[in-house]
Amino acid sequence: MTFGASRVEVVAEDGKRYAFAVEMAVTPEQLSQGLMFRRDLPAGTGMLFDFGSVRQVSMWMKNTLIPLDMLFMDRSGRVIHAEQYAVPGSLEPRGPAGLVLGVLEVPAGTIRRLGLKPGDRVVHPMFERGR
Q: From which domain of life does this come (predicted)?
């Protein structure tokens, strides 16, 4: 399956900015597959899941071979929940109680290394469409 390419920036509360080259998961098939079966995910890259409208979302690691960090964003791109070191293959659902528009998956350790946390903001056109 092929995914579109885009770029996102994570803006930390202290104003630091971190850019990522991402693949876009937008169709039901892409959202379902995500990063399954990938053997690596280089630093500075990730996958941005665009659910099209705000909804309750939980992610799992079925058929995912690499550990991941996940940032869950509301309709404005504000991070409302962060998951670190999701275990490959785990069927444990991960996610916030609140509604999200998107999820950014990045290599495990990225959240800790960059000091990312809820309240930070992900900048991408998907959050600017006034949903």
A: Bacteria
